[in-house]
Design goal:
seven-stranded mixed sheet, four-stranded parallel sheet, binds pyridoxal-5'-phosphate, globular, 17 helices
């Protein structure tokens, strides 16, 4: 068993399901990430997404206005800022809840990985001559027939399944999604309507992934998207950093020693927030401060990052927690070891929050900004509050950030929600209103 870099008090808080801020002692320690991936892979992922853009417009006409890029706006949230940010500075919302095609942050990573596989097959079989060819050829009969011989499988709590299932089926693959017990019925229905096979598991996310992986491995024509272990997903997610860099520049927001950037990222198994952190750190270095956010009942990334480099992440079950949360996108019991090892020196810290707190943020987003998100995404809005705690202030002090907080930029990364059916969202809102009264 790995030694965990957590204090006795933090240990007690985690076991008791109390919110906390954990500062990463291995932040900026070169020894913490001996096998860090090569950042040039982010540019490769960005190029691949550009190569496929014309094809994506054919498959998803809603992408034509954005030239085939799957991207979301960066929204300045002035009203919400006064309400949720006690630190000064500007608040922005990264609107991935409205990412086209998949309706969540899973769009970039999931679609990138499926495109990697499709591209490899198409090149091998000569359907496209090289990477400068017209990828719209892949909508032709011969390409679809080839893809139909192949299966793409994935295990998911819901949103990754949506992303992989939708792009997989759109290209003509035989798509199979293994859903954990947390997955919402409407996500399963949405996939089945598109011809995706949904396998329901009465088990947690880790078990759904394991079952999907085993079934897929037994079939030589099946490709498994391994959320616990995937550089392709990770680099697809990391592309968001390049896009954000452009958006910040367009908004005239500098990121430098006098203008720190704080980014709050909801975390499940770690791929999406890890990839984005990796991308942002490669662009902005020490001037960006990335914090992951997790439900008190599923702090798997906290436990994973607190472990020693190269060690297996500690499951939340070791702390007698049961993933009892409405944040289904974050309902993961064990972090990805690959992601922990890739980003252990990059992450500033992790904070946790109760479901009550998530619903309070969900309500504020609705009433103050008219933005509808799923509970998982709302956790990002607690970032500035958590940095204003005693532990948070310790971070600000030790990095000499207090003096430039008035110039700071805070980004709450809204990770999912636009596909949530009205009835489901109304249910979230009812809970939120009840809690707040
Ligand atoms: C998947 C997901 C996340 C976190 O991504 P991981 O790669 O699992 O860490 C956050 N928010 C939502 C809504 C998600 O679906």
């Amino acid at each position: 068993m790995t030694t965990l870099n957590i204090t006795a008090q933090e240990k007690r808080q985690i076991s008791a399901g109390e919110p906390l801020v954990w500062l990463n002692p291995m932040y900026q320690s070169a020894a913490a990430a001996p096998d860090a991936p090569d950042a040039s892979a982010i540019l490769e992922a960005e190029s691949r997404l550009l190569r496929f853009a014309p094809l994506l417009i054919e498959l998803f006409p809603e992408l034509s206005a954005a030239d085939g890029l799957i991207e979301s706006p960066l929204i300045e949230a002035t009203v919400l800022n006064t309400e949720i940010n006690p630190l000064a500075g500007q608040l922005f919302l990264k609107a991935d809840h409205a990412l086209p095609v998949a309706g969540s942050i899973k769009a970039r990573g999931g679609i990138h990985e499926v495109l990697c596989f499709a591209e490899k097959l198409a090149l091998e079989k000569g359907l496209i001559s090289d990477t400068s060819d017209d990828y719209r050829k892949l909508t032709a009969k011969d390409a679809r027939a080839l893809f139909a011989e192949h299966q793409i499988a994935v295990g998911s709590t819901g949103n990754l399944g949506l992303s992989i299932g939708i792009i997989g089926a759109a290209l003509g693959f035989n798509a199979v999604v293994h859903m954990s017990s947390d997955a919402k019925d409407w996500k399963k229905e949405r996939l089945r309507k598109r011809g995706v096979t949904v396998v329901e598991h009465n088990a947690d996310y880790g078990a759904a992934v394991a079952a999907g992986r085993a079934e897929s491995d037994a079939d030589p024509k099946s490709y498994f998207v391994d959320d616990e272990n995937s550089p392709r997903l990770f680099m697809g997610y990391a592309v968001a950093a390049l896009r954000l860099q452009r958006q910040l520049a367009d908004a005239g927001i500098p990121v430098d020693a006098d203008h720190p950037l704080f980014v709050y990222l909801p975390a499940g198994v770690g791929g999406a927030p890890g990839g984005i952190t990796f991308g942002l750190k490669s662009l902005f270095g020490e001037h960006v401060h990335c914090f992951f956010a997790e439900p008190v009942q599923a702090p798997c990334m906290l436990l994973g990052m607190a472990g020693e480099p190269g060690s297996e992440p500690t499951p939340i079950y070791d702390f007698d927690l049961q993933i009892d949360t409405d944040a289904d996108g974050l309902a993961v019991g064990t972090a990805s070891q690959w992601v922990c090892d890739a980003t252990r020196d990059l992450l500033s810290g992790v904070y946790t929050a109760t479901d009550t707190q998530l619903y309070q943020q969900l309500l504020k987003l609705k009433t103050l900004q008219d933005i509808e998100v799923e509970p998982s995404a709302a956790i990002s809005c607690l970032g500035p509050t958590m940095l204003n705690t005693e532990v948070g202030k310790h971070y600000l002090d030790s990095h000499q950030l207090r003096k430039c907080l008035k110039n700071s930029t805070h980004i709450a990364w809204l990770t999912g929600g636009s596909f949530v059916p009205d009835k489901e969202y109304q249910h979230f809102l009812d809970i939120a209103i009840k809690i707040s009264n």
